[in-house]
Amino acid sequence: MNGRVPGVEGFGTAKPFYLLYIKRAELYFPGLNGASGNVLKVPPSCIRPALYWSCFSVRGGVRFVFISKTAPLPERCGDRLQRTLVFTRSVCIQEPRLIGTRTETLSYRDAQHCSTRARELCEPNPCENEGVCLTSISSEAFTCECAPGFTGPTCASRMEVAADGEDPTPAGPCHPNPCHNGGVCEISETYRGDTFIGYVCKCSPGFNGIHCQHNVNECEKDPCKNGGICTDLVANYSCECPGEYMGRNCQYKCSGPLGMEGGIISNQQITASSTHRALFGLQKWYPYFARLNKKGLVNAWTAAENDRWPWIQINLQRRMRVTGLITQGAKRIGSPEYVKSYKVASSDDGKNWRTYKVKGTDEDMVFRGNVDNNTPYANSFTPPIEAQYIRIYPQVCRRHCTLRMELLGCELTGCSEPLGMKSGHIQDYQITASSIFRTLNMDMFTWEPGKARLDKQGKVNAWTSGHSDQSQWLQVDMLIPTKITGVITQGAKDFGHVQFVGSYKLAYSNDGERWHIYQDEKQKKDKVFQGNFDNDTHRKNVIDPPIYARYIRIHPWSWYGRITLRAELLGCTEED
C-alpha cells in the first residue's frame, strides 16, 4: 500500500474532518471488495439522519471513512450501503489538520495510528444506545456522538421532551441512576482510566465497582479478633465469637468473675434446693457458702442427703452475659466431696428455665466437673448464656454434692473488664490522692495511693487519706480516654481496725483540671454510690451511662474509721 490516502472529493476549504475505523465484517460492500482507490459518497441516513455525509475509501484491504459535518448532503443513499453503515462503531478524529483543497491528503501513517487508537479506546463500543465513539491521535480519551433522543458522556441518558413542544433537554448522565445497591450518582467531568465519563457512583458501605455492582467481602480484612469466625453478608459481616469474647469484632473480653468469690453477689442472691446439716444440725452447709476458694471448717454448699434432684441458683439481679463457670469441691469431716458432672439452666424470671444444650441439637449439655476437692475446674459456654438466673444441677457427685464456684462473664453491653488496678497494668505513678496517712507517723506504714488495689494483701494494703473530710479523693490517670462502666471498692484493716468507705461520688476529666461530677440523671443531682459495709467484701457499682474520660476520681462521701480504699475500675479502652 502506498503511504497516502487520496484526498476526498467534495470537501470545502478549511473543514474539519474525521477518520472512522470500521471492523472488516461491518464494511463489506458487495461488488467493492478488494477495490482500490474507490471513493463512495454516502448520505446521512446511512449513519445518522440529518447529521453527516460520508466518503468511504477502500484501498488495499484497509477501510477508512471520512466524515464532514459541514459538506453538502447528497440527495439519496445507495441501496447497497444503507444496510451496512448503520453498524458503524468508532470514529478517530484527526484534530489539528484541516482540508484546504481537494488535492490535500492525509498521511497514511497518521491514519493507521488513528485507526489503532480507535481499536484501543472504542472497542468494545463504550457509547450506549447506538452512539458513535470518537477519538483522536493525540488524546487518551474518547467522546461519544449520540443518536437522536440520547445524551450524556456515553449516550446513556434519554432526552426529556418538554411538554410545550420546545427543544428536548438532557436528563443528564445520572437519570436514570446508573448506580446499583443504593449508590449515589454525582455529576463529574472526569476520566475513568482512558474513558471520559460524566458521573461517578458513590457506593454505599459494603459495595464497590464502577456502578457499585459488587458486594464487598468484608471478611477478607479479617475483622473478627480473638479467634472469632467471620461470615460475609450483603454489605455487612458477622463474627461468631468464642464464649469469653463479645462485640461486633469479638473485641471485648467477657470472662471476669461476677462476684461469688469477691462478695459482689450477696448471700441473699444464692439459693438452693436443700441444705445439708451435720453433727446433729450444728453444721449447716448453706448455699451462700458456695464461694470459690472459701476458707473455714464449713466452706461450701452441700445438698441434703435425701435430695434426689439437687440444684443451686444465683440471681444476678439483672440480665447478664455468662460465659463460663469455675467449680471446686471441699472436704467435709476430712473426706473429699465434689461434683463430677453437672448441667446448667438459665431463666429471666426464675420460673421458666432453659437447659443449656449441645450446640445445634436438643440434647442437654453435661459439663465435666471436678476430680478432687480443691482444684478449680473451668468450663466455658459457647454460645454464652444471657439471663438473670443461673442454676446448676449436679449429675454425678463423690459422696455428697458439695460445691464452691464462680460465675464468669460481663454486662450485656460488654466493656466491663478490669482495667488494671488489681493486675498492676495501671502503674503506681498513674494513681494519686489528695493526701496520705502514716500509721504511727512511720514511713514503713504509709498508706499511699499506689496501694489502693483490689484484693491487695499485706499489713499496709490500701490507700488511706491523711484527713477525714469530704474533700479527699483518689485519682487514676488512664493515660488515654477510656470508657468506664463500673467501679469495685473494698476496705481494709489497719492493725485490726476495720476501715472502709461507705459511699462516694465520682468525678471525671479529660485534662486533669476541669472536673465534672457524675450525675444522677433521674434526680438531676450528684450521684452518690453505695460503698462497702465491711473491710473485705467487694462492692460493685455499674456506671450507666458510662463515663468516657482520661481521669477518674473517687470522692469518699461517708466512711467508717478512716477513709480507706482498695478499688478496681471496669470498662474498655477507646481502641476496643
From TrEMBL:
Keywords: Disulfide bond, EGF-like domain, Repeat. The keyword Mitochondrion does not apply. Residues 118-156, 170-213, 215-251 form the EGF-like domain. InterPro entries: EGF (IPR000742), EGF-like_Ca-bd_dom (IPR001881), EGF-type_Asp/Asn_hydroxyl_site (IPR000152), EGF_Ca-bd_CS (IPR018097), FA58C (IPR000421), Galactose-bd-like_sf (IPR008979), Neuropilin_MCO_CoagFactor (IPR050633). PANTHER family: EGF-LIKE REPEAT AND DISCOIDIN I-LIKE DOMAIN-CONTAINING PROTEIN 3 PRECURSOR, F5/8 TYPE C DOMAIN-CONTAINING PROTEIN. Pfam families: EGF, F5_F8_type_C. It comes from the Eukaryota. Gene3D superfamilies: Galactose-binding domain-like, Laminin. PROSITE patterns: ASX_HYDROXYL (PS00010), EGF_1 (PS00022), EGF_2 (PS01186), EGF_3 (PS50026), EGF_CA (PS01187), FA58C_1 (PS01285), FA58C_2 (PS01286), FA58C_3 (PS50022). One of its GO terms (cellular component) is plasma membrane. GO terms for molecular function: calcium ion binding; signaling receptor activity. Residues 254-410, 415-572 form the F5/8 type C domain. Disulfide bonds join 127-144, 146-155, 203-212, 241-250. This is EGF-like repeat and discoidin I-like domain-containing protein 3. The lineage of its organism: Eukaryota, Metazoa, Chordata, Craniata, Vertebrata. The gene is edil3a.
